[in-house]
Amino acid sequence: MLLRFRAMALPFQTVLIGAVFFTIYDLYTYFGHGLGAVESAIEALVASLIFMTAYYFTSVALRSRSSERRGKGLRKKR
Questions:
Q1: Residues 31-57, buried b or exposed e (16+ Cβ, 10 A)?
Q2: CA angle 53, 58, 61 (to 5 degrees)
Q3: How remote is the C-alpha of 64 from its chain's centroid?
Q4: Cα separation of 33 and 27, whole Å?
Q5: Among 19, 50, 16, 44, which Cα is nearest to 31's?
Q6: Whole-model pTM?
Q7: Using one digit for the tens of pLDDT, what is the confidence trace for 18-49?
């Protein structure tokens, strides 16, 4: 499952992880904090949008750094 997730395009990864985060956080705020259904959904939506934005930009930054270092440190093939 993890290998399939890593093979997906970054925007699809972001949407998928955002949906998982939304579901978990919505259930947490609904049952854990005792919020109503609408208030819980709105709070979970805002939190998941923040999480998705942070995940996307962090992944873009890490991928650009890893592509810069990709050729360094490898032995030359003859």
A1: eeeebeeeebbebbeebbeebbeebbe
A2: 130
A3: 17
A4: 9
A5: 44
A6: 0.76
A7: 999 999 999 999 999 989 999 999 999 999 99
